[in-house]
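HUMAN:
Sorry, I am quite new to this. Are you able to go through these amino acid letters and fold codes? The numbers rather puzzle me.
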Amino acid sequence: MKKIVIMAMTALALIGCAKKADQNPFFNYQDWATPHGTYPFSEIKMEHYMPAFEEGMKQGLADIDAIVNCQDEPTFENTIEAYVNSGKMLDVVVSCFFNLASAETNEQMQEMEVQLSPMLSEYSTQIILNEGLFQRIKAVYDQRENLDLNKEQQKLLDDVYESFAENGANLSPEDKEKFRDISMRMSQLTTAYGQNVLKATNAWTKLITDESQLAGLNEDTKSMMHENAANNNQEGWLLDLKPTTYGPFMQDCENRELRQELYTAYNTRCIGGEFDNTQLIIDIANVRLEYAQLFGKRDYAEKSLHKTCAEKQEIVMAFLDQLRDAYMPAAKAEVAELQAFAEGLGFEGQLQPWDFSFYSKKLQDAKYSINDDILRPYFELENVKKGVFGLAERLYGLKFVENKDIQVYNPEVSAYEVFDANDNFVAVYYSDFHPREGKRGGAWMNDFKPQWMEKDGTDSRPHIVNVMNFTRATKTKPALLTYDEVETFLHEFGHALHGMLTKCQYSSLSGTNVPRDFVELPSQFNENFLGEKEFIDTFAKHYETGEKMPEDLIEKIKASNNYHAAYACVRQLSFCYLDMAWHMLTEPFVVPEGQSVQDAVIAFGDKAMDQVAVMPTVPGTQMETAFTHIFSGGYAAGYYSYKWSELLDADAFAQFQKARDERGSIFDKQEADLWRENVLERGGTEEPMELYRRFRGGEPTIDALLIRDGIMSVDAQR
């Protein structure tokens, strides 16, 4: 389906003043005199967006009218291809604005998002419910058996037809009006939810003026907090909810009261107060149910899972239950071991969630003599970049050459030209590593421009961006990453490779345009290399001495890689069960009599997650009010896909490990070529499991995942 139609369902918005076309860079996007047609960010101003959106929608609807009014019989070329190539200008504006709305937003931009949300929703609805357009698409679809189409064209035809049929084209006139209203409400609600999370995260800070309260924190974290305070014109150390502060603080700070305060602040975001999301959660769940039932589905999960690898919620739930049964005994044992360890250090009472990371790190130190303080000096960002880029060169022959002539949207962003082993241009790659005001938390990959083939056969290559929130350099040290941050880099870079290496005919099928329970496979697969000495040796060296990471430290990393793997799994499962619970509702959620909205939402979440709870539930806290993945992102009834992809990535990497054992290198060219040709290049041009089986030579099993996580031994597999 057209990207703009999809994005409008979770849409963002803007306002602006009129601007002459000759002064607005979006109006001449085809003639940008920039390397590879990249965005001229220095020329794009806030006031340019609204006129460009308006003109883009006008042109897009004109393109649709031209298809509908065509006097020739409907063909694949004059209908299907014409449809997927419509609205080009709007695609350009959407890609720019949405990327910056996540990585470089401000109050004006957020106000703009709210204004545009119903406009984009109405635009997409006008197209999806255009009866004349659908009849032409259906006419082509009905004769599909007689058309001389290649495999990708067949897939495109199926996808286009189903996208219309599943989004209201076959509805009655009365139900089409309901669909318009539902689409607009869903867009507005999810936009408001996401904005509340960002605002609530940025709103909470605590100034620490007594350094003794920060006992246990390493100097890098304290230095960062001190600089945060200075940047806020304050004296002391500024505590906030951003990942680069929250994680290290919960792990290292000896002040238990402060850890509890920070945990509570983080896990009560958007529960009541100015940025309350509890009523929005109910409204979003109910409008999604209304949307699903409009199409005759019992719940939103049934509607959402239709075009995924899993296909049915029964399969998803059986998969989650299989993981639960396999991992829960080990997770409970891990928590019991941690409780005993803490008591041995003098702790009294039952461990609480704000204690877990703190004592987990201490136990890890005791068992493996390894922690982030030991590893950070070997993970200097510039060296990590060389290692990650070098992995792509060893596996796929890619070379990354920084080009300062490519404009960037923030001075901290770097832009690279990517070439293959024969010096052919592959992609533009942007990297954006550090947190700042206006950037939402987390890490992600997106495209500023997808890949497609022009009519004359020219391969129009993609422009890909990775956005992260990694530890910054301080006045005394360069940016030194944690092990988890290095792993996150590899993960997001795996998505980037999926986007950069794609070779497809149509943009709507290229790159990461695959079912969401397949999209995490390339990213999670890439993480596996961090457990391999052969890879670590290529980049991990001490930032001061230049010495390589000692072999005994690498062995400790390998030995500790499945440390608390069971706990991590059941934690992820708790998110999956929560997601499915909200989207398997078959009746609208109603707040029970005598309960507040906040209490009802928290109780619902607690009940859904309880079956995999291995730590005490803290009354009044719940993560669902800030769970942007499912309430304002694209993972509604789809969060299970992370675990589904883990099964596949472990199974896939087992092939590389087998090749290493047989042919001597984890960078095995034979397996890398198979992986690239059957997964990374093919996008959504075929059914994903067909692509995977072609690479793997058979069906995946759960065994490799259980072995990797230490739940099952190799001997047990045999």
